[in-house]
Amino acid sequence: MNPMVNIAVRAAREASKVITRNFNRVDRLTIADKGSNDFVTEVDRNAEAAIINVLREKFPSHGILAEESGHQAGDDYQWVIDPLDGTTNFLHGFPQFAISIALKVKGRLELGVVYDPINEEMFTASRGQGALLNDHKIRVSQRKSLDGALLGTGLPYRDFRFEENYMGMLRDLIKESAGIRRPGSAALDFAYLAAGRTDGFWELGLSEWDFAAGAVLVREAGGLVTDIGGGERFLETGNVIAGNVKVHNAMLRRIRPHLDDKLTA
Ligand code: IPD
Ligand code: CA
Ligand code: CA
User: Fold this and answer.
1) CATH second-level architecture of 150-264?
2) If I label 10, which of 57, 148, 160, 238 is the partner at 20 to 30 A Cα–Cα?
3) Is the dihedral of CA 85, 48, 123, 222 positive or negative?
4) Which atom of ligand 1 is nearest to the CA of 206?
């Protein structure tokens, strides 16, 4: 495994201390509203600072793109950080959230770490080296079609531009699959897919930090990640389909009729 994974794991563990320390005192946190249904807490900020501290100390020349503090320019290496993915869950005491850290090198995804501090599940992957859950190899599921498939998704909740498109996709995929889950942390949705716990996933309007690490996990676990039209631009558009290869292709066919230019542009 790429030795930089170990540093990212260490950074994730530092953030997890901030998060778990505060999980039972959510009522006493300062919560700011960034916009419609978009909350940020001191926990998001402090967890992010803890991650950046670890990375900066080891790699002072690397760039950073972090959800709360934004962009810091650097060399060809860029860390992409979501310190707490699933803030709404966290604020409700719903134990499904994660820390997500990815590394891009010259724009290409190189490694990903997603940590669920409640279940103590550390998902790691680096390009060409496979994906691990707590040091055990993971693979995407072997399901061959949508029949019997369990799909993850994210519902629109603050940006309703694609509501009609999304509802059409949901209506069709509900009928064809065994069930749909919306747990509320895109980073963990990808990690679960990589571990074969779900067979496919789609969401519209994600930000890069929500799923950059998750995309590495899924790819390294043998799955496919594309944009919603089947192309490579998933990080730019934030409109994404992922799955084992067969389920991914089946989802793409069902989703296609609901696409328009604004989703693929
Ligand atoms: C959110 C979660 C959620 C997804 C949203 C994201 P946040 O991240 O990943 O599952 O549906 O689009 O914004 O705001 O909790 O870091
Ligand atoms: Ca997020
Ligand atoms: Ca976040």
Assistant:
1) 3-Layer(aba) Sandwich (3.40)
2) 238
3) positive
4) 12
